[in-house]
Design goal:
Blueprint: H1 6-15, E1 18-23, E2 29-34, E3 38-41, E4 44-49, H2 53-61, E5 64-71, E6 76-87, H3 91-102, E7 111-124, H4 134-155, H5 165-183, H6 191-203, E8 209-212, H7 218-225, E9 230-234, H8 237-246, E10 251-254, E11 267-273, H9 284-294, E12 295-306, E13 311-317, E14 320-327, H10 331-340, E15 344-351, E16 364-370
Parallel strand pairs: 8-9, 8-11, 9-10, 11-12
Antiparallel strand pairs: 1-2, 1-5, 3-4, 4-7, 5-6, 6-7, 12-16, 13-14, 15-16
The structure holds flavin mononucleotide.
Length: 379
C-alpha cells in the first residue's frame, strides 16, 4: 500500500520546501531546509544535496531521517519519517537527476538523497483548535503577509492599502496575551468609562448585550457583574481564546462586525469599546446598519473611539512586533453615519486622556444611540 497519499503528494509538490532532520554523530539534532524536496513515488521522497554537507554526512553514518513539509499559509502539513540513501552516481542517480533537471533544478548537485518513507503523519496547527475553517486560516495568513507588505511599503514611501478585517485580526493575534495582561483590568483606572457603562446597564431593555470587539472580554465581564447577561465577539481568534480563558462563564466567538453571526433583533444592547477604530470611514454606515439589524427595537448601541482624523499605524505594541492601523473619527462623522443607518437619540460625550500609564494619549468620544421602535409584546 502506498504510504504517500494524493493529498500528501499534492502538498509536497506545491510547497517545494522540506525541513530535513538528521542525527549528528554526538546525538544532537541537525535541521536544514531543502527546496528541492519532491515526491519520487508512492513511498519515496527525494532532495538534492547542493550545499548540505552536514545532512549528507549524518545520513551516511545514520540513515534515520524526518522531513516536515508545511503549508505556512494554511498552517497544515505532514511529517515524514524514514530511512535515507545517499546516491552519488549510478543509474538511479542519473534517473532522479534527469527528473530534477526537468523540474528546473539547475544548480550543481553533489548527491541525491532518496528517502524511503515508513510513516507519514499529518501536522495541524493549533490555530484550528477553536473551530476555524481552512478558508479562515488561509485568508488570515494571506492578509498577515499583505499587512507586512503594507508596513514595508509605508517605510519605503509607497501608498499603503486600507486596514482590513484580516490584517486587524492578524495584528491582534500577535499581541493578544500581552493585550489581555495590560487591558483586562483597565476599567479600574477609568471612572468615566465605568460611569458610561453603568448608564448603559441602566438604560437598555431586558436582554443580552454584545461586547463587540471584545478583546479579553473585560467590558462584557463588567456588565455581567452589573446583572446584564451577554456574549463577546472579536475578529482575532487568539483574543477569543484568551477571553474564554479569562471568563469561562461568558460565551465568546470569532467574527467580523461587517457581517455579524447573529440573527435579527437578537440583542438588547451592543457595546463597541474601541472596536470601530479599525474600520475604514466609508465602512461605518454599513457596520451601523448591521448593528441595527441585530438590535431589538429600543435597543442601545454604545461606542467609544479616538477623536481625530488620522490613521495611526503601529508596528510595535508593548515591545511586541505587530501591524495595526488605528483609525480616528470626528464625532460628527460617526453621528452622521449612525443617523444614516437609522439610529436616533444620539448622545455624545468626550474626555481627555487619563495618565500615560493608564492609556494612549488621545482625546476620546463616548456615544450612545437607540434603535427606534418599541418591541412588540410577542418577542
Ligand atoms: C529555502 C531554502 C532552500 C534550500 N534548499 C536546499 C536544497 O534543496 N539543497 C541543499 O543542498 N541546500 C539547500 N538549502 C541550503 C541549506 O539548507 C544550507 O546550506 C544548510 O546550511 C545546510 O545544512 P546541512 O549541511 O546541515 O544540511 C536551502 C536553503 C534555504 C534557505
Amino acid at each position: 500500500m502506498s504510504v504517500l497519499d494524493a493529498r500528501m503528494k499534492l502538498l509536497v509538490e506545491r510547497q517545494r520546501l522540506g525541513f530535513v532532520a538528521t542525527v549528528c554523530p554526538d546525538g544532537t539534532p541537525n535541521l536544514s531546509p531543502k527546496g528541492t524536496t519532491v515526491v519520487w513515488n508512492d513511498d519515496h521522497l527525494v532532495f538534492a544535496d547542493i550545499h548540505s554537507p552536514g545532512t549528507v554526512s549524518n545520513l551516511q553514518s545514520n540513515p534515520a531521517v524526518e522531513i516536515n513539509v508545511v503549508d505556512a499559509i494554511v498552517r497544515k502539513g505532514y511529517r515524514f519519517k524514514g530511512t535515507a540513501r545517499v546516491l552519488g552516481d549510478g543509474a538511479l542517480f542519473d534517473e532522479i537527476l534527469a527528473f530534477l533537471r526537468k523540474r528546473g533544478v539547475a544548480s550543481p548537485i553533489k548527491h541525491i538523497v532518496l528517502v524511503k518513507v515508513d510513516r507519514a503523519l499529518p501536522l495541524v496547527s493549533p490555530a484550528y483548535d477553536a473551530g476555524a475553517t481552512e478558508e479562515e486560516v488561509r485568508s488570515h495568513w494571506q492578509e498577515y503577509w499583505r499587512s507586512i507588505d503594507r508596513a514595508d511599503s509605508t517605510r519605503t514611501g509607497k501608498i499603503p492599502s486600507p486596514p482590513s478585517a484580516a490584517s486587524t485580526a492578524a495584528g491582534y493575534d500577535l499581541v493578544a496575551a500581552e493585550y489581555a495582561r495590560r487591558i483586562y483590568g483597565e476599567l479600574e483606572a477609568k471612572p468615566f468609562d465605568r460611569a458610561f457603562l453603568d448608564r448603559l446597564a441602566k438604560g437598555i431593555p431586558a436582554g443580552e448585550v454584545l461586547d463587540l470587539g471584545c478583546g479579553p472580554g473585560h467590558v462584557g465581564k463588567y456588565l455581567r457583574e452589573r446583572g446584564i447577561p451577554g456574549r463577546g465577539l472579536d475578529i482575532s481568534h487568539e483574543m477569543v481564546r484568551v477571553a474564554r480563558e479569562l471568563n469561562p462563564t461568558i460565551e465568546f466567538r470569532q467574527g467580523d462586525m461587517r457581517a455579524l453571526p447573529f440573527p435579527d433583533r437578537f440583542f438588547a444592547g451592543v457595546a463597541a469599546f474601541y472596536s470601530i477604530i479599525h474600520l475604514e470611514p466609508a465602512e461605518l454606515e454599513h457596520v451601523f446598519r448591521e448593528l441595527e439589524r441585530v438590535l431589538r427595537p429600543g435597543g442601545l448601541l454604545a461606542l467609544a473611539f479616538h477623536v481625530g482624523n488620522e490613521v495611526r499605524h503601529v508596528e510595535d505594541l508593548w515591545g511586541i512586533k505587530t501591524s495595526l492601523d488605528f483609525v480616528f473619527f470626528e464625532p460628527a462623522q460617526v453621528a452622521k453615519a449612525l443617523r444614516a443607518a437609522g439610529f436616533e437619540d444620539i448622545e455624545s460625550s468626550e474626555r481627555a486622556p487619563y495618565e500615560p500609564s493608564v492609556e494612549a494619549q488621545t482625546h476620546r468620544c463616548y456615544m450612545v444611540a437607540r434603535r427606534p421602535g418599541i418591541e412588540s409584546p410577542d418577542r
